[in-house]
Amino acid sequence: MITACTKEPGQGGTSSINGKVQVYNINSFGDTIGEPFYGMDEDVYIIYGENDDTYDDKFATSFDGSFRFDYLTPGKYTLFAYSRCDLCNDELTVVKKTVEITANKSENPISDIIILK
């Protein structure tokens, strides 16, 4: 019997995940101030597989709010950023997006990660 090796989610592949971080400024009442914009230098974290304990890599967004994680193998991934949360103990909450890469050499865009500042 011949068995094929399967790689765990992570680096070493030929696929990518990309997207943008959109920022809404809010006041202490929770009202939006000004127009939303794409955030420069916002950290986006990635978790390989289904282990939610720690992140595996992070990327600071570019001038236009974009980020990209390259060289990924097929599998499940969680991307997240921190958002303001006035009712939370540490005043931050996590905004998560999940994506599953199903093929090699694939581009996998996600919808905007929306955070509050």
Secondary structure topology:
Elements: E1 11-26, E2 32-38, E3 43-48, E4 57-60, E5 66-72, E6 75-84, E7 92-101, E8 107-109, E9 113-116
Parallel strand pairs: 1-8, 1-9
Antiparallel strand pairs: 1-2, 1-5, 3-4, 3-6, 6-7
Poorly predicted ranges: none
Count of discrete structural domains? 1
Task: Calculate Rg over CA atoms.
Answer: 16 Å
In sequence order, what are the helices and strands, one letter per element?
EEEEEEEEE
User: How would the global form be characterised?
Assistant: elongated
CATH superfamily: Immunoglobulins
Helix vs. strand class: mainly beta
* CATH architectural category: Sandwich
Profile the largest sheet: 5 strands, mixed
- Using the coordinates above, name the CATH class: Mainly Beta
How many beta-strand segments? 9
| Count of DSSP H/I helices | 0
Helix content: under 10%
CATH topology: Immunoglobulin-like
Percent of residues in β-strands: over 45%
* Rounded mean pLDDT score: 92
Distance N terminus to C terminus?
A: 56 Å
Protein model, in words:
- This protein has 117 residues and is mainly beta.
- The chain has one domain (11-116): Immunoglobulins (Immunoglobulin-like), CATH 2.60.40.
- The chain has no helices and nine strands.
- Strands 1, 2, 5, 8 and 9 form a five-stranded mixed beta sheet that branches. It has a four-stranded antiparallel beta sheet with strand order 4-3-6-7, with no helix packed on it.
